[in-house]
Design goal:
single chain, alpha+beta, Endonuclease III, domain 1, Nucleoside Triphosphate Pyrophosphohydrolase, 2 domains, 3-stranded mixed sheet, 3-stranded antiparallel sheet, 14 helices, binds iron/sulfur cluster
Length: 349
């Protein structure tokens, strides 16, 4: 069944594949043209925890500005962080730069082909290594993202909840993957999950492989993959202080080089572990100014929800390491989304 499954899915992919800026047309692969490993790697890093729609403009601007991995290696890290601002999960941007440096210096600007060597590079885990190895180099490996996980769990009606089911899903995916066209097959599985085998209400009657699908046979696709019970996200609290000068500049500083949002820019904030109201009051500000309340901001991180009380002050003086960012400059700063929200709450967007 595996050979027939792969051939059916690939025939569907040849006709219905998504056109995405980092992909090459499968017809070109038949003529021996392979996708550029740099573009495959860059897109896969950007797509981690992020939607295709959000990634597209970032991908386009990155490859325009840094067309090769050597160009990215030669870039200034602050410029890369600024270009990444708004995409979230900022450790990816720092690892992206470190990985480009290693590929340029150790591998002469050419990405390695095997999962084992790719995984030694910064920011490249099991999934990304498999995706680059299969899509860019045609190696036979199991490429399992969230979409593929869902498709395979349904094809086999896997009753074990995630994440315990992951090893079985990986094995079954490898069994399904053909030796020829393994990269196209991986992308076909992703496309099937993204366009037809959706989390809610999958379009099973349109699915090219429904005759192979156990969940379709039992009409219970939405039960798979089985999820573990949900855990509540803890709430953390803090305060942020938006100092605005007479000409509209905002006082910013750089976050420490380690930890959450490391190396990004921010308005001064307290630590995010306040337990009492006093710790989020104007007295917690890092310098004296006529602070007035300007609302609150909520932001959801992967492991917690942050509630920030926002204060604003008109002042020309601020103390501590930092700089004044003028209205012309602020869009180009490496500000994560939570800080953009804090500034918008204080001065409007
Ligand atoms: Fe997914 Fe339905 Fe296709 Fe099965 S038949 S793989 S559940 S879309």
């Amino acid at each position: 069944m595996n050979h027939e499954f792969a051939q059916t899915l690939l025939a569907w992919y040849d006709r219905h594949h998504r056109r995405l800026p980092w992909r090459t047309d499968p017809a070109m692969h038949e003529r021996g043209h392979r996708p550029d490993p740099y573009r495959v790697w860059l897109s896969e890093i950007m797509l981690q925890q992020t939607t295709v729609q959000a990634v597209k403009p970032y991908f386009e601007s990155f490859v325009q500005r840094w067309p090769t991995v050597n160009d990215l290696a030669a870039a200034d890290e602050d410029d890369v962080l600024k270009a990444w601002a708004g995409l979230g999960y900022y450790s990816r941007a720092r690892n992206l730069k470190r990985c480009a440096d290693r590929v340029a210096s150790t591998f002469d600007g050419r990405f390695p082909e095997t999962i084992e060597v790719l995984k030694q590079l910064p920011g490249i885990g099991d999934y990304t290594a498999a995706a680059v190895s299969a899509i860019a180099f045609g190696r036979h490996c199991a490429v399992v993202d969230g979409n593929v996980e869902r498709v395979v769990a349904r094809l086999h009606r896997i009753a074990t909840p995630l994440p315990s089911a992951k090893p079985a899903i990986r094995r079954l995916t490898l069994d399904l993957t053909p030796v020829e066209r393994s990269g196209d097959f991986a992308q076909a599985m992703m496309d099937l999950g993204a366009t037809i085998c959706s989390p809610k209400r999958p379009a099973c009657t349109l699915c090219p492989v429904n005759t192979h699908c156990l969940a379709f046979g039992q009409s219970d696709a939405e039960l798979y993959p089985v999820k573990p019970p949900k855990r509540e996200r803890p709430v953390r609290r803090g305060a942020a202080f938006v100092a605005v000068s007479g000409d509209g500049a905002v006082f910013l500083r750089k976050r420490p080089g380690k930890g959450l949002l490391a190396g990004m820019s921010e308005v001064p904030t307290t630590a995010w572990n306040a337990r009492q109201d006093g710790e989020t009051g104007p007295d917690a500000a890092p310098f004296d100014a006529p602070w007035t309340p300007a609302g609150t901001v909520r932001h959801v991180f992967t492991h917690f929800e942050l509630h920030l009380v926002i204060y604003r002050a008109e002042t020309g003086e601020a103390s501590g390491d930092g700089w004044w960012s003028t209205p012309d400059e602020i869009d180009g700063e490496a500000l994560p989304t939570v800080m953009k929200k804090a500034i918008a709450a204080a001065i409007g967007s």
